[in-house]
Specification:
This protein has 338 residues and is an alpha/beta fold. It is built from 13 helices and twelve strands. The chain has helices at residues 4-13, 48-51, 53-68, 85-95, 111-118, 141-146, 163-168, 177-180, 213-217, 220-227, 234-247, 253-262, 305-323, and strands at residues 22-26, 39-42, 72-74, 102-105, 122-126, 135-138, 155-159, 182-190, 193-202, 267-274, 280-286, 332-336. The protein is globular.
Length: 338
C-alpha cells in the first residue's frame, strides 16, 4: 500500500490513537465488517473505473452500503474515476479551474485532428497515467512524425503553457530559477485545507522526480563537479527555494481546493505551476500519490525531508480526524487494491 504503510508507521511512532481506529479492507476479498465503522476512506489506484474495473465495482458496493448505513465516505469511487487526463481537464474547464485545454484521443488515428484543435506546441500523454510514461512534447508536425505510439491507445492532447517563458517576459520579483528552468509545485489538499509538499525544477517542461534538478545534482558526477567548483551554488539555490515553498502558505490555495472538489474528491496531491502574475495553472490531481519515508527522499538530509514528511503525515492525520469528527465512534476502513 504505497504511502499508506509509511503513514501507518508514523501513527505508531507518534502513539496516535487513530492507528487503533483503522481497519484495512482489500477490495474483492468479500464483504467488509461495518460494525463500529463511522467513516469509509477509499485509498485506491486511479483512474479507478478505467484501470481497475473489477475493483471499482466492488468499491461501489462498499460505498453504497456505507451510504445506506449513513457513514461518511472519503474519496468516493466515482471521484477516483474522474482523474484521467481528459476527464479532469474537461471538468476543470467547465468549472473555471485554471488548467490547460485538452482534446481526447481514443486511438492514434484521431491524434492529428486533436493536435489541430489544440495547436502547437502541445503535450501528448497517456490518458490514464500519472507518471512520466507515454509523454511526448510536440512543437511542430515533424515531431508528430517521429513520435512513438502511445501504448495504452487512449491519450490526451494538452496545450503546452511555457511558464518559464512567462517569467522571462515578466518583471516579477522572484528567484532567477523560475526564469532559468521549468518548475512544478506539489501541494496536498484535504477538504479546504492545503499543505505544501515540494517544488521541483527541471530543464524539461514535463517536471517530475526522475528528471528534476535535485535528482541530477544528487548524482555522483554532479557531486564531484560541485566539489571542483562547477555550478557550485545551484544546489544551494534549489534547496533554499524548495524549503521556502514548504514553509510558506500556498499561493492559489482556493484554486487547488476547487480543483479537488470539482473532481468529486476529498483529498489529493495536486501538481501545478506558479505564474508570475500570482496565479496558478493546475496540471493534475493524484489521489493515490506516492510519499516515501523522508529518509528515501532525494537529497533527504539537505532538504530536511524526514521532518517535512513527518509533518505532512501528522497534518494528514489531523485532517482525517477532523473530517471524521462528526462520526462516532471514529473508525476508518481503507479499501486497497487486492
Amino acid at each position: 500500500m504505497p504511502t499508506g504503510d509509511v503513514f501507518l508507521k508514523r501513527l505508531v511512532a507518534t502513539n496516535d490513537p487513530l492507528f487503533h481506529d483503522i481497519r484495512i479492507h482489500a477490495t474483492c476479498t468479500g464483504t467488509p465488517d461495518f460494525s463500529d465503522i463511522g467513516t469509509v476512506l477509499f485509498w485506491l489506484g486511479d483512474p479507478l473505473k478505467q484501470k481497475y474495473p473489477t475493483c471499482y465495482l466492488d468499491a461501489m458496493d462498499i460505498a453504497k452500503e456505507a451510504a445506506f448505513r449513513g457513514l461518511k465516505v472519503i474519496n468516493h469511487p466515482d471521484g477516483l474515476s474522474n482523474t484521467s487526463k481528459t476527464s479532469q481537464a474537461r471538468i476543470w474547464n467547465e468549472c473555471g479551474v485554471p488548467s490547460a485545454n485538452v482534446a481526447p484521443v481514443r486511438d492514434m488515428s484521431q491524434l492529428p485532428a486533436a493536435i489541430e484543435a489544440i495547436g502547437y506546441p502541445c503535450i501528448v500523454r497517456g490518458d490514464e497515467e500519472h507518471a512520466q510514461r507515454d509523454v511526448a512534447i510536440l512543437r511542430a508536425k515533424s515531431d508528430l512524425d517521429r513520435m512513438p505510439p502511445i501504448r495504452s491507445g487512449a491519450a490526451a492532447v494538452l496545450r503546452m503553457h511555457d511558464i518559464r517563458q512567462e517569467y522571462r517576459d515578466s518583471t516579477a520579483r522572484c528567484s532567477d530559477l523560475f526564469r532559468r528552468y521549468h518548475h512544478k509545485a506539489r501541494a496536498f489538499v484535504f477538504g479546504d485545507q492545503v499543505m505544501a509538499s515540494h517544488l521541483f525544477f527541471s530543464e524539461s517542461p514535463i517536471v517530475g522526480l526522475s528528471n528534476c534538478l535535485f535528482t541530477r545534482e544528487a548524482g555522483r558526477v554532479r557531486s564531484l563537479a560541485r566539489k571542483a567548483g562547477y555550478n557550485a551554488t545551484l544546489l544551494d539555490e534549489l534547496i533554499a527555494v524548495d524549503l521556502q515553498y514548504f514553509a510558506t502558505p500556498v499561493f492559489g490555495r482556493a484554486d487547488l481546493v476547487a480543483a479537488v472538489r470539482a473532481l468529486g474528491l476529498d483529498f489529493a496531491a495536486v501538481d501545478y505551476s506558479l505564474r508570475p502574475n500570482g496565479q496558478v495553472i493546475i496540471w493534475e490531481a493524484n489521489p493515490y500519490f506516492w510519499l516515501p519515508d523522508g529518509v528515501q527522499s532525494v537529497l533527504s538530509e539537505e532538504r530536511r525531508a524526514v521532518d517535512r514528511v513527518n509533518r505532512s503525515f501528522d497534518w494528514m492525520a489531523t485532517c482525517l480526524k477532523s473530517s471524521a469528527a462528526q462520526q462516532s465512534p471514529l473508525s476508518v476502513v481503507t479499501a486497497i487494491p487486492a
